[in-house]
Amino acid sequence: MENRDKIVVLLAGGRIVQRHELHDNPELSEEELYALLPDDLKTHVVFQKWSFQPVSNYTLRMCADIIGMASGFIHDEGARGVVITCGIQALAELAYFADLVWELNPPVIFTGSIFNAGTQNSETAVRLTQSIRAALSGACTGKGALICIQDAIYAPADVLRISNFNRAGLLAFPESPLGVFSQPSGDYISLRFPRHRKIQKLVSPIARNIPVISASLGDGDLILRALLEKRFEELDGLVVSGLGDGDVPTSWVPHLRKLVRSEIPVVLASRYPDGIVQATENYEGSASQLLETGLISAGMLSPYQARIRLAVGMASGLKGQELADYMENK
Questions:
Q1: pLDDT digits (tens, 9 = 90+) for 135-146
Q2: 212-327 to CATH, choices 3.50.50.100, 3.40.250.10, 3.40.50.2000, 3.40.50.40
Q3: What are phi and psi of 83, to 5 degrees?
Q4: Which helix (H) or strand (E) holds 91?
Q5: N or C terminus: fewer CB in 10 A for the chain?
């Protein structure tokens, strides 16, 4: 098989492998991609095209398809590892999803670039080279899904997107990198292991409809009320992105209680990038009372991580306290 003992680079789009959209042939050809790699890597790599549509069109079920394909390259075809290119806008979320379900020892490494291929600031060659070297090194074995960005390897749970135009627009937070490179295209140096992760095996399709609703100063209940009045039966779950410790406007409380009584999982997260849900106050709409009502704490998860984790937990058959424990990463 052509993929045996190779690193499969799964091209799922992203600026890293696409010229500006106004170009006659925006997608880099296989020949062009090979030409960007150092000679010592070329015989270890196979390129496989998947889809070049924007990540804004991805569903979680499509994400599951991508991870299933990556697993097949390793389990069925004997690949040593998989590198996936994708749009950087949701790279951290896709990698986080993968990390929750990736049960194989060989690594799956996600990479991307803020800049289009072929531009003056293009990072295509260095990002592909670094990702492939890391996958070949053996040091990434057993560490789950990983992200290669900014000359280092990170755990998906530690990556926060803070800019859409700055080269340093991805920040590892709050942990340090798992490893770095000796020079831009040099050897990979492992520094530490990621935190322990509990792998979930999906036993049912990923839920489609788990919206995130964010509270803001002076906000009313218009969106939440409209959702429950018009599309209630379509909801699989809900993530509430609350102020501070997870507090929401008082007007939200009756709607959230209705969801809980209907046994629709409602997860409470803090909207702060480094937030944590805390039961420190005791008033209508406070995190304390919401948790007593039956909302599930997201702990330190961001609202977007919480949405993905809730979808995975539900597709794994978790309910009640098991689901609540899983959401707090217990």
A1: 999 999 999 999
A2: 3.40.50.40
A3: -110, 130
A4: helix 91-101
A5: C
Token digits of residue 297: 């704490």
Read off the pLDDT band of 247 (50, 70, 90).
Answer: very high
CA–CA dist 113, 324 (Å, integer): 35
Confidence of residue 172 (pLDDT cuts 50, 70, 90): low
> Which of 128-149 are b and which e, b meaning 16 or more Cβ less than 10 Å from the residue's Cβ?
bbbbbbbbbbebbeebbbbbbb
Distance CA 133, CA 84 (A): 14
Domain ranges of the chain: 7-190, 212-327
Helix or strand or coil: residue 268? Answer: strand
7-190 and 212-327 agree in CATH topology = yes
Tokens of 39: 């000679």
- What is the CATH number that goes with domain 7-190? 3.40.50.1170
Contacts with 226 (C-beta within 8 Å, 6 or more apart), sequence order: none
